[in-house]
Amino acid sequence: MTACASANGKPPAPQPKAAIGTFGVDLDGRDLSVKPGDDFVAYSGGTWTKANAIPTDRSRWGAFDQLRDKAETNARDVVQTTAAAHPTSGPGQKIADFYNSFIDTATIEKLGLAPAAPDLKEIAGLQDA
Q1: Where in the chain are the domains?
Q2: Which of 41, 43, 98, 108 could form an S-S bond across to 34 if both were Cys, CB 3.0 to 4.6 Å?
Q3: Rounded distance, CA 43 to CA 41, Å?
Q4: Do 82 and 95 form a contact (C-beta atoms < 8 A)?
Q5: pTM over 0.85
Q6: How many Cβ atoms are within 10 Å of 52's Cβ, its own excluded?
Q7: Which residue in 79, 108, 107, 73 sits closest to 94, CA to CA?
Q8: Which among 68, 40, 65, 44 has a CA at the least distance from the CA of 53?
Q9: What's the CA dihedral at 89, 95, 98, 99 to 10 degrees?
């Protein structure tokens, strides 16, 4: 039992009970006006499908597509917020420098392939795979 004690010899403070969220099948997405034996796809997700039309710039749309878009938006927000803070050291500076070099299209157009020239020359000199 001593392995469960804290460094000061007192028992550790009780931890809050883990909160378990909802998971599983989205029952609200069902269309109960359709019999499952007639059209199970419409029955199991018809209400969701009616409320979530495929965007005009997409060939498909589903919950995983929504999740991907949300993750991309969150990542973009973190990168843009970090870059706007102008950090001067650490990972934040690396993120900001990389992002700012990516959006500096004037410099990209001016330099063209020159920064990659040494690597391209080495690749061109290869004799086999």
Answers
A1: 26-58, 62-113
A2: 43
A3: 5
A4: yes
A5: no
A6: 15
A7: 79
A8: 65
A9: -130
Three-state SS string over the chain comes to CHHHCCCCCCCCCCCCCCCCCCCCCCHHHCCCCCCCCCCHHHHHHHHHHHHCCCCCCCCCCCHHHHHHHHHHHHHHHHHHHHHHCCCCCHHHHHHHHHHHHHHCHHHHHHHCCHHHHHHHHHHHCCCCC
Question: Which tokens sit at 92?
Answer: 């934040």
Tokens representing residue 91 in the block:
């990972």
